[in-house]
Amino acid sequence: MPELTADGKESVKTLAEKYAISEDAISTLIEALISGRGTAAQFNHPDLGGMGQWVQGGMIMIGDMFNNDLKHRVGSLCTELAKLLSEGQLIETQDAHKTSATTAGATNSSYESSYSTFAPKSSGWWPLPLGTPTSTGSQNDLHYAYFAAAHRLALLDRGHLTIFDTAEHQIHGFSQEQSAGQSLSFKSQLGLVKISELKVVQI
Q1: Which of 49, 96, 106, 112 has CB atoms 3.0–4.6 Å from 62's, for a disulfide?
Q2: Domain boundaries, the chain
Q3: pLDDT, tens digit, 9 for 90 and up, residues 46-60
Q4: Half-sphere exposure of 111 toward its Cβ, with a 13 Å CA cutoff?
Q5: CB 177, CB 183: distance < 8 Å
């Protein structure tokens, strides 16, 4: 893991006391957030309820699924850490720029720059329990993943994740209206269905 700043080390201690979660577990979260570009994290630590996943916007899952208190604390902790990362208060960025005069500023970038935006990878931004998506797609800042076997549709809109129950629909086509509201609809064996008609679920 990149070296913490002096303020970062102090923040980790403060957060450990605030959320009653070990500093080692917090370090695990910081690494996971770095991998998730500051807006998503996949982690595995006993103090965090085992395997878990967090996505900016409120989605949080932990292995100890019935421990709502721990789930709330881990979710809130991830939100605070993501904010600190985006503000450049946790990680030393000096080393990333210790290059010669001829190479400084050429290809290396600070960790800060990778936290401010989240470009979804080809796989992995959706909740792990959903498995492998039947189809995926994206347009502008809107990304979707459809899981036929689970009857679920995951929608990532500007970093905010929402899960929908697709019920009896067998989705085979998506369309997005070019408007300020970015309305999404899809085609199924029952015809055209608007995303607003689907039920929002936890997973």
Answers
A1: 49
A2: 1-119, 128-201
A3: 999 998 888 877 778
A4: 26
A5: yes
